[in-house]
Every structure is written in structure tokens, then in C-alpha cells.
Amino acid sequence: MTATSALTGIVHLTERSPDLSGAEMVAALTPPPQFATASFESYRADADFPSQQEAKDLLVRFAGGGAPAPRGGLFRRPKREPALKPGVYLDGGFGVGKTHLLAAVYHAMPARRKYFGSFIEYTALVGALGYKNTVDLFRGSDLLCIDEFELDDPGDTMVMTRLLGELVATGTRLAATSNTPPNALGEGRFAAQDFLREIHAMAESFQTIRIDGTDYRHRAVDGHAVVLSGEAYAEAVDEAKSATLVSDDDFGMLVSHLARVHPSRYIRLLDGVGVIGLRDVAPFEDQSAALRFVAFIDRVYDAQIPIRATGDALDLVFPDEMLSGGYRKKYLRAISRLVASTLA
């Protein structure tokens, strides 16, 4: 997890070549900073979308924090709550509080060994330690929280589902989230079914929880990120560098640099950085580069680092042909986060 540093001045991310050991990757499997104190009490369910409160109530039970079922009267049988499955899968759109609820589960569950990470962090750990060592590491753990479970890489998906299958068989409980764009109602249910189909033998172990609602940030996904002129950008960087460490990079050069850094190490690129500066933003032409940038922005958003940029609006860097393809959900999630980061 990126720690805030007292460093000030200018740094270039393109000059950083971070390394990350397996032990450090494991130590980082905790909720990101903005969810470090997330709780069920601090989750504000929208009354216009009852599924939010329903999801919260079920997850309170899942985490072991629910009140016992009321006892029956003299001639009444006590009310019995249905048994919970060992895994829950939160399926919903952007900004409805899935990650908040996932972190609340993590904090509330009285577990000795528990982990919280994004899908890419877990797959990176398998890549770093090997499958068997990763299974041995997590065997006996009480809880694994997986944020933003991905379905677009069959290899990684099957590795993860095999890993989770082995862990569930030995008593580990699981909680996972997915993303559904707000303008694609119904896609989330298909994603959930795809997920359950991928984990075939584990399907009965998961309870899918649909969470409806609108983005809590109250910003449309197709809203525009803030763009600064060259002069305004220079002023913003100059003002910020006296209070924090500011990264100042050419957009194209940074995108090229990301290809030379494993996504599991992107978080280390951001060590100590308080503001990110990107010059001459331009649309992507290569999908691999675009997907690496999405992974980078996920880490930027987790660390709650504001972005200042020139050139094209950051929400317009993904061309229509990319937005209409199989990675649509990833790109829309990134757009939502880019808009929020430039307004921070």
C-alpha cells in the first residue's frame, strides 16, 4: 500500500523501476486507504434502491456481526434465517458502494487471517510465488476479499477459480465484487452467470447479491475530465510541489514505461506521490497499452491521488471501437475514476 511521504518537489514516474517481493505483495493485501476505516455503519444505503440495504443486511450476517434471530413466543416457532453460503459475489454498477461493503466485511469479520486485494494483485502473487506456494500461503486463512473480479483473461480466471476452489474446500470464506456500467442494466447478471460458470464446481458455494443504484459521486460516466492549459498546468505543479511530491510526465512516455513495469508493481511507482501530472494526453491506438493504463489508474484511484493534465480530456482516451469491445466495463470504470481524479 502506498504510504504518504513528507517528500516534496518533482519526480518523473518514467525514471522509476520499482521491484516488489512476494512478502511485500502479501503485506499489501489490505483495503486501500480510502476504505481503511470502512464499516457497515458508515455505508449509506440509498432509500430509492432497496437492494443496497438488503445487501448490507446480508453482508452483516455474512461477516458475523448480525443480531441473532428473534426467539419465538409460546406458540410460535423462532424465525430462522436461511443459511449463508461460504462465498458472496457483489454484482452492481459503479459507485454503489461495492468496495465499501467488501472492506466492511473485511473489517467486521473476526478473523485471525484475512486478506483484501484486487483480482490483479492475487494473480500477480501467483505469478511471483507460483501456484502451489500461493495455495500453501493462503491455506487456513479465514477470509479472502477479491475486488473487481475479472473475466476477460481466461487463463488468469481459471487459475483464480482453481485457487479459490481449493481454499473453500479447506474452510476459507470468500467475498468478491464485479463492475456493471450504469447504462448497461442486466449486463451485471450476465457477468455473474459467467463467473459462476467459470467456477462450475464452486457455483453452489456462492450467493450472488445484486446491488442497484447510481454512482455516489453523482457524475455521469460520460462527463468530461478537467483539462488544463499549459500555463495552468505549470502553475498547478509549481504550487503543489512545495507541499507534496508531484510527478510530472509526458503521457505517451508514461504509457510506454508502463509496458516495462509489471502491473503488480504500479503501486510502487506511486510511492510518496501526492499529485500526478500528465502532459499532452492523447487517445490510445493500442489496446494493450490502454489496458495497462486502466490498471495504473486503478492504483491511482485506490491511493486517492489527484491528477492534473493537459492535452485531450482523459475520459476521451479510449476510442469508440475500444468502448464497444469486450473490455467495455474496464474502460468505463476507468473513465469514472479519471473524471473523479481530475476533479479532486
UniProtKB/TrEMBL annotation:
<keyword id="KW-0067">ATP-binding</keyword>
<dbReference type="Pfam" id="PF03969">
    <property type="entry name" value="AFG1_ATPase"/>
</dbReference>
<dbReference type="GO" id="GO:0005524">
    <property type="term" value="F:ATP binding"/>
</dbReference>
<protein>
    <submittedName>
        <fullName>Cell division protein ZapE</fullName>
    </submittedName>
</protein>
<dbReference type="GO" id="GO:0016887">
    <property type="term" value="F:ATP hydrolysis activity"/>
</dbReference>
<keyword id="KW-0547">Nucleotide-binding</keyword>
<keyword id="KW-0131">Cell cycle</keyword>
<dbReference type="InterPro" id="IPR027417">
    <property type="entry name" value="P-loop_NTPase"/>
</dbReference>
<dbReference type="GO" id="GO:0051301">
    <property type="term" value="P:cell division"/>
</dbReference>
<dbReference type="InterPro" id="IPR005654">
    <property type="entry name" value="ATPase_AFG1-like"/>
</dbReference>
<keyword id="KW-0132">Cell division</keyword>
<dbReference type="GO" id="GO:0005737">
    <property type="term" value="C:cytoplasm"/>
</dbReference>
